[in-house]
Structure formats: structure tokens, C-alpha cells
Amino acid sequence: MSTRQRVGLVTLAVTVLAVAFVALRPADDDERPASAATPAPTSPTATPDTDTPTEPPTATEPAQPSAPLLTADGTPRSIEVIQGEDVRFRVRSSEGERLHVHGYDIFRELAPEKTVELSFPAELEGIFEIELERSGTLLAELEVYP
Prior knowledge:
By secondary structure, the protein is an alpha+beta fold. It contains one helix and ten strands. The longest helix has 22 residues, at about 5-25.
């Protein structure tokens, strides 16, 4: 093979590589078709019905589920937690009462028609009654699993 042929082959190879690079390279943002464009960062947007901008939702801590409400309606509830988690519940009584969480020996005086929220760490494993002491009404069973 002569020098002239080698130069021709090298030139041809470089040309093929250059064309392949241009054809296969990722497009710049300005050259991308609209369907392939990366969405713009979230900013105030207009609602479909109006031209008034609305603020996007902001990141916040996940909302904790509402603590269950225990009442003397005749249907005891079950509260299940893993040992070490916080036990959370609310209590409401139509009359003045005394709440007792057995095993944990937690007592709270309840005023009529007032809601009281309790929260404490589930340190003991087992099943514990939550009751209204004076009337002996079982409100719930607290089940703490290992």
C-alpha cells in the first residue's frame, strides 16, 4: 500500500468518525425537540382556569397520622406499636373520669367533654389495658411488640 493510499484511508476514517460524532452526540438544550426537553425547575404556574400563578407545594415533614380518639362508646380499640416507638392517643369522656394505662401506671384526670392527648415511649412489651378507672370502662388494649 502506498503512502498516498494510507493518507486517503486515514482521511476517510477521520471523516467517518467526525460525521458519526456529530450525528450521535447528545443535543444541546437549545437543539432538543420540545418532547425530549428536561422539564424546567418548579416555579409558580398558572392554573388551567386562570392566568393567576399558584405557588407549588413546599417540602415539609411528613404529616403524622392523627392519634386515635378513645371514647367510652362501648367498642374497645386496639393500639399496636413496636417497642421503643411512641404510643400516641387521645381520650375524651362525657363525665369527669380518671384514665389509667395499666402496666405503665400512667394516670390522667379527664374533665367532662375535654380531649386529652397522651404520648409516651413504649418501653414494656405486652398487652396493656387502657381504661376509665371510676366506671371501669375498657377503652383500648395497647399491644407492644418486640
